[in-house]
Amino acid sequence: MNELSVCVNGRRDLPLRHINLHSPDGFEWGYGGSGPADLALAILVDFLEEDPKKVLGGHGGEKSAAVHAHQRFKDKFIVGLPREHWRLTEDEIKKWYYDVIGALCKDCG
């Protein structure tokens, strides 16, 4: 298991929870692999305030919004992050998320 950690709002006492969809080894960033995909998923689960326990199973076979969007989020943000000391703001995530959802679901809302 790696020793990388990601904190919410810069608080070390609020570590981002790893949701193991792709990588059993935890978070990574800076490339397009499984660890970065899990980081993207965890960030979106936190942002969307989804229940981490229900994200992978969904209700009635449906996947969460975070699961649907995390690969696109990874490609936009996580792949290009530097190895150390990076920050994504809620405003950056919010703008990206609603732009993407708006493009995917023109009849929503």
Write up what this structure looks like.
The protein has a two-stranded antiparallel ribbon. It has helices spanning 34-48, 65-78, 90-104; strands at 7-8, 11-15. It has one domain (7-104). Helix 1 crosses helix 2. The model has no long low-confidence stretch (mean pLDDT 82). It is mostly helical and 109 residues long.
Which helices and strands appear, and what pairs or packs with what?
Blueprint: E1 7-8, E2 11-15, H1 34-48, H2 65-78, H3 90-104
Antiparallel strand pairs: 1-2
Helix pairs in contact: 1-2
Low-confidence stretches: none
Distance between the termini: 41 Å
Please state roughly what percent of the residues sit in beta strands, choosing from under 5%, 5-15%, 15-25%, 25-35%, 35-45% or over 45%.
5-15%
Shape estimate? globular
User: What's the alpha carbon Rg, rounded to whole Å?
Assistant: 14 Å
| Main sheet strand line-up | 1-2
Keywords:
109 residues, two-stranded antiparallel ribbon
How would you sum up this structure in a few lines?
It is built from 3 helices and 2 strands, in the order ββααα. It is mainly α.
